[in-house]
Amino acid sequence: MADEAPCREEDTCESGPGHGRPVIGFIAPNVHGYFFGSLLTGVIDTATANGARVVAIQTHDAGISVFEQKLFAAELAWDHLDALVIPQAAVGCSYLRAFAATGRPVVTVYEAPEGFACPTVVPDNGQGVQATVDHLVGHGHTAIAFVGREPANADDWIRYEAYREAMLANGLVPSEAVLVPWRLDESYDGAVAVHRLRTGGEMPTAVVACTDVTAMALIEALAEVGVGVPDDVAVVGFDDITEAAEYHPPLSTVAQSFTLAGATACAFALRALAGGPVEPGLHCTPVTFVARESCGCRSGTESGATNQPGLEDLTVRFVSELGHALHGDQEPTATHQHTLQAAVQHLVTLFAAVVRVRDADLGAADKAAADALRHVVAGSPNPLRALLPVRELAQAVAGRLAPGDVLAGIALERRAFDVMARVLESHRYNQSSAVVNPHVEIQRRYNMISTDLVRRQHVDVRSLTWLDGTEVRAGCLAFWTDADEKGCCESLRIVGAYRDDGGGGRRDECCALRAFPPASLVGLDDGRADEIMFVLPVRFDGSDHGFLAMVGPFDVLEEAAFERFNHWAVLLTVALDQERAVERLRLSEERYALAAEASNDGLWDWDLLTGEVYFSARWKALLGHTEDEIVAAPEEWLSRVHPEDRRAVDQALAHQRNGHDPSIEVEHRLRTADGSYRWMVTQARSVCDAAGRVSRLVGSMTDVTERKQLEERLRYDAHHDTLTGLPNRALFLERLDRAILRTRRSPDHMFAVVFLDLDGFKVVNDSLGHQIGDDLLVQVANRLSSEVRVTDTVSRFGGDEFVLLLDGVRDIPRLPDVVSCLLTTLAAPMTLPEGTRTISAAAGITVSATGRSTADEYLRDADTAMYHAKALGPGSVVMFDEAMHAAAMARLRKESGLEEAIAPR
User: Fold this and answer.
1) Which residue among 7, 745, 817, 822 is least enclosed by CB atoms within 10 Å?
2) What is d(CA 82, CA 269) in angstroms, rounded to the nearest whole number?
3) Dmax over Cα atoms in the chain, in whole Å?
4) Over 80: is that where the pLDDT of 15 sits?
5) What band does 705 get if pLDDT is binned at 50, 70 and 90?
6) Bridge partners of residue 497, in order along the sequence
7) Is the pLDDT of residue 437 over 50?
């Protein structure tokens, strides 16, 4: 390890890769607040004093509140950066290694990366924790616990190991670390640690906390269970944040300066950039134990500044040196001279007390010296220049009061750094208060920005014009382009730029990731000395659009300003998400509308809670209505359903409303505007609310009239003769089967089958042609149909064969006479295109009284009788009897015997 001082002006770097001024990159989960903001403050102050600029990159999502282990991997702005300063938990070793491979320096803060050698600036954790344990042991404590954080960072574990070593060095047994859960918004659950302390055995009498905030959370949780600090338990923190001295009780702590750590890291980066020597490894910044009341100490030093015997000449000398460092050769006014004298006198009093009153509570003296010094640096353009004379004053006091005492010299030098860190942090905070919040109009402007980002109707969020009226001088918005085959993305598309002089607006330019933000847009080449570039991700709740870069005089210690920037990033992300969702919805609706139009479907949406039904224009057009002729009511649909179909439709919809059927499809007829009915197919799906109840029915309606007509035609053709329109053999057999079943159920019900064959039709067909033959068959069919009852069936089996089913016959004996009359009518002359013709026929009859079991048997009997009739001559009618069947069977057997006899053997 090596203690290092901040870079002096002679260590500055002259130039960087393509820039007139060096650019230091600062990459951290957040770039504001008391920790990261203080680190960045030191970086900015040192960079500004040495003519360099700073690009601060935030890695965490805007709005994130929980600890996130995901490391930043984007090589953002690498083309602009000359060196990197990286705090803990920001990037991985591969990132650092890749940047260092370009020949540019890398310095880390508070955590040494594993597997990569570079300078790392850390507080002297070991010395601070050792001093804490020694101090508590001096109070008589032996049961001393360590309270850390969960999740823990590198400093937490280093401090815990230092605690273990200090306990062992004092002959005490260290305990396991008790962890306090915390979030990135700096909220801590101290009750968890208190519960673990109380249930882990005997309650400790003292606690070493890894940070001040952890200690404060613990003290509050102890108070809630009736445990007082320091009366019951002594508590010591680490960091000496601003609130520590004003806390109740005032918090004893180990003072370190985050600002000094950031300044030292930046100094190393600039020194390495200039070719100066910077050794890899740990470089410790000084820490000082600050005794206050939480450890059991009582105030032992007054804050008043007095002339210290033997140090009066130092006061006079350093008043001049401090004034010259801050204001050059400018002659101070009387008031200013008095302020300088008061500040130096308070510093001399503090430094003398450090040497003369060891282990005393110097909080009041610290505060008085820092307050006095704040008044001195308030009007200086570069307050960091006060550090050198204050440090030299501490060394002079040590040399005068403790010559040769190395420890005293180190203690005074650390105290000097600590006081300067407080002054610089407060100075920057006061500046920000004056710049950022001068009056209500600025706050109103910020609220308007939030409103504009939410509404978006009148604001193009990509153009960044909504940044007008803010402290942002320039800005740039870039979105990710499509990733490559490996899922990586090395380029961005710049969609908007902003300049306070009006030079921005919408853009559409491709930009390499390493080149973002581009110098031409954000003013890298003409930036002012007090400005930094701040880059934050436009990423929130799983949506990652890209990056927003802003340039301005931002105060990184003012959390409100950066929370506002993060708030804008969240609103911008949401606005872009909504814009993308609206565009997707528009395209989806357009596709759906085109698909619905192409499919000729009408759409409807029935809200069961309000009773309203949305009918699309196409739905209304299917019925021949215009948009205004149908209102949003279910009866507009249901009242038009054909009466014969209404029950089926009502039943299907009722099942769906009750949740029985999630989807339905029902065919029904619907009355159109001209009063006619058309066939429709209605398809619907149910939509449930959060409780699982059906709240909507959504569906479509398709006109299938032509399809139904085609189906009817196909069905008709399948059962009717295409020439005459009479039922064909299939339909006749179907009706005959029904008649047979009816007769079985009611024996008194009788029917007759008449098989009729035309005489001489073949001669007409062959001699006069098929067309004349067809005309003749049509006229025969019409005459037969006109002579029978509606309950009877006339069918054509093909050729010149016609079969009649006479249903409900009452007088069987009269059947031959009835059929003879029918044949007489049929024999009347028929008018054909070539002249008048007559046609005769013979008919065979069989009746249900024969008791046959199948339709084929009845047809066989009627056919047998018909052949007997034809043998008797034209116009003959024969009733079937069993003798005919027996004769037919005998003839069949004889023919079969003859065929068998003459068959070759």
Assistant:
1) 745
2) 9
3) 164
4) no
5) very high
6) 476, 505
7) no
Query: Among 92-101, 398-407, 426-435, which stretch is predicted with the lowest mean pLDDT?
Result: 426-435
The number of distinct structural domains making up the chain is: 6
- Model pLDDT for residues 59-103, shown as the tens digit of each residue: 988 665 555 567 888 999 999 999 999 997 789 899 999 999 999
Report, in angstroms and rounded to the nearest whole number, the Rg of the chain calculated over CA atoms: 52
Q: Give the residues across from 753 on adjacent strands.
A: 805, 846
449 and 580 in a common domain: yes
The rounded percent of the chain whose pLDDT value lies above 90 is 49
343 CB-side CA count, 13 A = 30
Residues with Cβ within 8 Å of 425's Cβ and at least 6 positions away in sequence, in order, are 38, 41, 242, 259, 557
Backbone angles phi, psi at 67, to 5 degrees: -65, 135
Domain extent, residue 381, equals 298-436
The sign of the dihedral angle between the CA atoms of 203, 205, 211, 213 is: positive
d(CA 590, CA 598): 12
Residue type, 231: D
pLDDT of 318: 86
User: Going edge to edge, which strands form the sheet with 751-759?
Assistant: 793-798, 801-807, 751-759, 840-847, 877-879
pLDDT, tens digit (0-9, with 9 covering 90-100), for 592-639: 777 766 667 899 999 999 999 999 988 999 999 998 999 999 999 999
3-state helix, strand, coil in the chain (%, to 5): 45, 20, 35
| d(C-alpha 499, C-alpha 170), whole Å | 62
DSSP H or E segment with residue 419: helix 406-436
Residue 716 identity: Y
Tokens 């870069």 identify what position?
549
Name beta bridge partners: 424: none
Joined together, the tokens standing for residue 253 give 């702590």
What is the percent of the chain where pLDDT is above 70? 88
Say if 264 falls within a structural domain.
Answer: no
pLDDT value for 486: 40
Provide the CATH number for the domain around residue 89.
3.40.50.2300
Can you list the alpha helix ranges (DSSP code H) found in 334-405? 334-356, 363-377, 387-401
